[in-house]
Specification:
Elements lengths: L8 H12 L7 H9 L5 H7 L5
Helix pairs in contact: 1-2
Length: 53
């Protein structure tokens, strides 16, 4: 989201459409791919939690 302008109305609508509205009808990795246009990665989570630089 930060790569596309941060927390904007358009980004919120995009998140709602591809993540929240599908609920548990899709596997999480497929929903994420539809939302972000790429496969999920642990790198961002590990960086956010302070495990990597």
């Amino acid at each position: 989201i930060t790569q596309h302008g941060g927390m904007t109305r358009a980004n919120g609508d995009h998140f709602r459409k591809y993540i929240l509205s599908v609920g548990n009808t899709l596997p999480y990795d497929k929903a994420y791919f539809n939302f972000a246009g790429r496969k999920p990665s642990l790198k961002a989570l590990l960086k956010d939690k302070g495990f990597t630089k």
